[in-house]
Design goal:
Keywords: Membrane, Transmembrane, Transmembrane helix. This protein is about 80% helix and about 0% strand. Helix 1 crosses helix 3 (about 50-65). The chain has 6 helices and no strands. It has one domain (about 1-125). It has helices at about 1-25, 40-50, 50-65, 70-95, 95-100, 105-125. It is elongated. The longest helix has 26 residues, at about 1-25. The chain is an all-alpha fold. The N and C termini lie close together (about 10 Å).
Amino acid sequence: MKQTLIYSLNVWLTSVVAAPLLFLIFTLPKNTGIGIEILPFEWLMGGVLSVPSFLLLYLTSNYLVRLRFSILIDKIILSLVGILLTYIPFFLINGYHLILDGDQLSQPLFICYSCATVICLWFYKFNPPG
């Protein structure tokens, strides 16, 4: 349980920090008027809005340890769960508009958070006991 907590914390914290940086790099060429000054706000809001997702990721990783799949299967499942957990806060804020006609900020921000989450899920070592 301790290993899955550390793994989930690493993934969550790195995603919360890295996604706004990816967003800044991704939107910089478009010159949207968004700069580095909003990074602390994005980190704060990303952290607050993703706490339930962190808890669900932790519970999912604990459940996967009990199922004893291979690490590859675990990571694929966690990647799908991570994308779903990333989508939920955006859906709660924007509703179905994110997919159909996402605004100029929500779609790129969702893509950056999803990419950061999946990259972190695969970067950090998922080392379940047993």
